[in-house]
Amino acid sequence: MLPDNNGYFGQYGGRYVPETLIPMLIELEKKYKKLKTDADFLSEFESYLKDYVGRPSPLYFAQRLTKYCGGAKIFLKREDLNHTGAHKINNTIGQALIAKRMEKKRVIAETGAGQHGVATATSAALFGFECAIYMGEKDIKRQSSNVVKMQLLGAEVVPVSTGSKTLKDAMNEAIRDWVTNVESTFYIIGSVAGPHPYPMIVRDFQTVIGRETRHQIFEKIGKLPDYVIACVGGGSNSMGIFSAFLKEDVNLIGVEAAGLGLDSNKHSATLEKGSVGVLHGSKSYVLQDKYGRILPTHSVAAGLDYPGVGPEHSYLKDIKRVFYTSVTDSEALKAFKVLSEIEGIIPALESAHAVSYAMKIAKEIGPSKSIIVNLSGRGDKDVKRVQEIMEV
Amino acid sequence: MGIGRIQNKFTKLQKSKQKGLIAYLTIGDPNLEISERFLELIAKSGADIIELGVPYADPLADGPVIQYADEIALNSGTNLVKVIDLAARIGPKIDIPIILMSYFNPILQYGPDLLINNSSAIGIDGFIIPDLPLEESRNFSLKAKKKGCAYIPLVAPTTTPSRLRKISQIASGFVYCVSVTGITGMRQNVSSELPEFIKRVRKNMPNMNLAIGFGISNPEQASIVGQIGDAVIVGSAIMKIINQHGEFGDKKTELSSFISSLKKALV
Q1: Hey, of A110, A293, A297, A306, which one would you mutate to test binding to chain B, going by the most B CBs within 10 A of its CB?
Q2: Which residues on A lie below 8 Å from B100 (Cβ)?
Q3: Which of B62, B70, B125, B230 is catalytic?
Q4: Beta strand extents in chain B (DSSP E only)
Q5: What pLDDT, in 10s, does the model give residues A282-299?
Q6: B209 within a domain of the structure (yes/no)
Q7: Domains contained in chain B, number
Q8: What is the CATH classification number for the domain harbouring B56?
Q9: A243-280 pLDDT, tens per residue?
Q10: Do the Cβ atoms of A291 and B134 come within 8 Å?
Q11: Interface contact A17-B133, CB threshold 8 A
């Protein structure tokens, strides 16, 4: 099972961070390897997922959406029903439990849409950690309700005004904080990105989505699904659900943000339009110019507005195990509206990208097939933003 | 050229009982032409080694001063190719070793092998790559050494003794000791743990030239640090002078006297 001992998925991954952090990353890797098979740790993690997060999350047959699209049966994995409203909490509980065992006093995180920030602040409150969340100024504006939530949960929200003022620069600042306070502070990375062992740890904590889904779809239709679709920013919800189907004959589709269009230079389609580079500690596809300067990105969904992607996704793209495609802002907004109106489910704009692609292919692949969409989060945080866009 | 040239520099310093001054400059802030003039000035004012900083938009190891300098330099259109061109022009004019400091991604896009070949041909004597730790740098450091170019790794207060020994095997020229756990930028005081840290490094890397950087911003600090290291690296304090308000002429005067005062503290 990947990654290899050096933290590589094929040619992707590794540890491209300053030396100051390396001893800590090695310590974390050793600690995690032990905990991974530690019965006490695993049962504590599972009990929090059950009693605190509210797992298992349902797999819901979206009958009206299926009818609307006129084709394949569409199922929604309801990660939006988790405590804090997205899949992010699975990972933050797991990492907070590691931090506790490493006797750290403080946790930090980066956030784009604010979902990972809220989930981290929640876990910090739950376990009594001091907490700082780095968030780009642009994201603070467009996801203001999550900022208030993080503050209510006792976290300090640190605005990041450098560079793009979004997730990329929030992560830069979080890493700088970490380099400075590495002895006392645990960095809870929110996606399957960053230096080894993070892509592996975050994936492992999110595999609960895939395990449950697999069990649930067998209960519902007695067989594997034909398609599993998830949105991809850094790629944690998609790795979580794909992980249970990688070895099966199931079509796996990762949907990136095409923003204003793939030829507009205003998108975040890293796997479709990027090239191999190094960002935030790992080698992976990145959006960059020929001199290695990371390019500005755009998406209506703050959680997808990121010029990098987890290294395992780059590997899965190259070996052609997962098909990566993209959906524009306006297509995602349409799916956001449709799902709200005909299913009574307001999805996160990020997850609406996956919904949109399912709607696109459902008719074409026909009624004998089934699709599972990972509904990674709920859209409460986006309501104000969507209203603004609709009014324009 | 290369490793030999850096070694000669340290030998000379030792003979004359001096400590080295390594001056860092973000190239392209405010533009290439002015950077070139600052470089000549720094060399003339007493720097022993010059570090050419390739601007990068995501400099994880750098504090606000160098982040700002990088941003200006990128906006002026500076990239790795232009920094190498500048190194080729400046080399014959200044008689001190030139080190290229770049984050790894620009190097990866340029092509690491091509960079090593071109650099040794035009007289870049060594490389500092702050986000390329031991495990990721084996290929690069080997190839650079083959071409006679120094690979200068960083070590930090968190680096364990066994890592120090491994890192010493890939190092050539000198080793960059990060004085604090943190990012670049000026600090009020020299860390009280520095002597203990440098002692640990020396014990595990005997015979290696040690340059100490991060946070050193005035002659008093340079003098303290110079007593334990073989050289002192100053960056943010230089970029702060360059980016303050004022005329080019005034900055030149201030920079020149700043560099000489640092050097005086090391003699």
Answers
A1: A293
A2: none
A3: B62
A4: 20-26, 49-53, 98-101, 126-128, 150-151, 154-155, 175-178, 210-213, 231-234
A5: 999 999 999 999 999 999
A6: no
A7: 1
A8: 3.20.20.70
A9: 999 999 999 999 999 999 999 999 999 999 999 999 99
A10: no
A11: yes
